[in-house]
Amino acid sequence: MSLSISKILTMTPSDEVVSVNGWVRTKRSSKNVSFVALNDGSTIRNLQLVVDTEKGYEGVTEEVMALVTTGASISASGKLVASQGSGQAVELLCEKITVIGIADPEEYPLQPKKHSLEFLREIGHLRFRTNVFGAILRVRHALTFAIHKFFNDRGFFNIHTPIITGSDCEGAGEMFRVTTLPDQNPPLTDDGHVDFSKDFFGKATNLTVSGQLEAELAATALSKVYTFGPTFRAENSNTSRHLAEFWMIEPEVAFADIKDNMDLAEEFLKYLIGYALENCVDDMEFLSKRYAEEEKLKPQAERDEMSLIEKLEFVRKNSFERVTYTQAIEILMNCPMNKKKKFQYPVERWGIDLQSEHERYLVEKHFKKPVIVTDYPKECKAFYMRANTDGKTVAAMDILVPGVGEIIGGSQREERYEQLKQRAEEFKIPQESIWWYLDIRKFGSVVHSGFGLGFERLLMFVTGMGNVRDVSPFPRTPKTAEF
Ligand code: 4AD
Ligand code: MG
Q1: Does 460 map to a domain?
Q2: Are 321 and 435 part of one and the same domain?
Q3: What is the CATH number for 373?
Q4: Residue 420 CA to ligand 2 centre (angstroms)
Q5: Is the CB of residue 214 below 6 angstroms from any atom belonging to ligand 1?
Q6: Count of domains in the chain?
Q7: Same domain? 390 vs 457
Q8: Is residue 483, in this structure, part of any structural domain at all?
Q9: Burial class of residue 48, CB neighbours in 10 A (0-12, 13-18, 19+)
Q10: Which residue is closest in CA terms to ligand 1's atom 14?
Q11: Residue 350: which H helix or E strand, with range?
């Protein structure tokens, strides 16, 4: 059997013949010797193949070597020897090379040179083969695993909440409809609207925007649960931080208040950062170098003074700043940016929604570290957040990080039946659509809290990528659902 390159690179030279499969990254030839950099995605590192056509190996011919070009898939076997060159400890002295699939150099778009991330998005089917996407996808995998490990180690149960739902968790009303009704002449009600009682589920249904409401049901029985699934938002926001389809991690904990919730969220983020730094060393080093190169292109004043790894180490080792919305507004109202009218949305009064420019000012310029903002005006947040005693704010918490802005949104939930019912009415949420959500407040209701971490936002932060489209293998955004 052939071995993965990540495994081979840990082995010591020996007389045993090893086989390897992969895709050619580059080929350099001089007289009778060629050096082929082979990659199989198991690691960012390439295995160097040394092909000496004068050594008399029958399995390596000029004809075959002519087809060994960037992008071709090949199988190679030979002995592992100590490398003559610098850059790698071992290399494979090839005795046989078979070309599995050719890649015509005239047509193959991924030639060994620097391609822009925008160009790579256009060739989303091939960008997996670049160093940067390989690194991101391996980190994405490692963090998926770490998320399950974190919760499993702490006695949480994973709950699969539905993807098709009849309720609108966030109350934002921007959802993708799920229907099997015909698009021409659908059945209509007497008042001329589409009659969803004739639809597949007998009611209007959508793709979920969050698994929270269902996770709350499970938390009021299993105490500590979490969801990790795809969520969908039909907002027409074409920004570098929004996807129409993204993955969210949503823990929900019974008998936990907003303070417990903040502590859990902070511990969780630090754990995930630490996991990536410790388990994805090669990829993180590559991404850190890439980040430094990107920063160099920015004007001095906007440049990150820390390397990506330094920044993550800093976040991991220091406590997050915790401020109320009211404190945050005061800082923003009095800051030089606001006074010089440099914000697109000036901060003029208590009660405004924090825009991403404000969030970024707080973390990047003012505190220079992650910030947890709590107790937002109730008008800014969802109906299910617990009302504070001041009558104006709710027990919300958002975590903001440098370079990304909001990475986590969460709250202590309104566990009091009457209060919640009234809030739902104020938000014009029909009771029949969330009767079950209200019902759990009638029977053994408990203080409980939870939050949602946007997985792609986390990946942007950990990998230092500036656009959410580049941390998702198949990004869905307005007007793009290719691949
Ligand atoms: O703040 P949000 O909307 O909160 C919720 O959905 C709650 N139900 C979570 C909970 O309390 N269980 O979304 C949570 C996080 C955001 O902080 C952000 O990281 C991410 O999800 N997010 C998005 N990520 C990518 N694209 C989008 N369009 C996103 N919208 C939210
Ligand atoms: Mg939010």
Answers
A1: yes
A2: yes
A3: 3.30.930.10
A4: 20
A5: no
A6: 2
A7: yes
A8: no
A9: buried
A10: 452
A11: none
Q: Give the H/E segment covering residue 116.
A: none
- Bridge partners (DSSP) of residue 18 are 78
Q: How far is the CA of 266 from the centre of ligand 1 (A)?
A: 16
Residue 84 — very low, low, confident or very high, per pLDDT cuts 50/70/90? confident
Residues 169 and 221 in one domain: yes
- From the list 420, 408, 416, the residue with the least C-alpha distance to 450 is 408
* CB of 441 shorter than 6 A to ligand 1: no
Tell me the DSSP string of 7-70.
HHTTSPP-SSEEEEEEEEEEEEEETTEEEEEEE-SSSSSPEEEEEETTS--TB--HHHHHH--T
Domain that holds residue 59: 5-101
Pocket probe for ligand 1: among 240, 380, 457, the residue whose CB has the most ligand atoms within 8 Å is 457
Beta bridge partners of 81: 91
For the chain, the C-alpha Rg in angstroms (whole number) is: 27
Mean pLDDT of the 16-42 span:
95
DSSP state of 236: -
Query: Residue 246 Cα, ligand 2 centroid: separation in angstroms?
Result: 14
Q: Within 10 Å of residue 418's Cβ, how many Cβ atoms?
A: 10
Cα 393 to averaged position of ligand 1 atoms, centre (Å): 20
Share of the chain above pLDDT 90, in %: 90
pTM of the model: 0.97
Establish whether residue 450 lines the binding site of ligand 1, counting it when its CB lies within 6 angstroms of any ligand atom: yes
CATH number for 29: 2.40.50.140
Are 94 and 223 in the same domain?
A: no
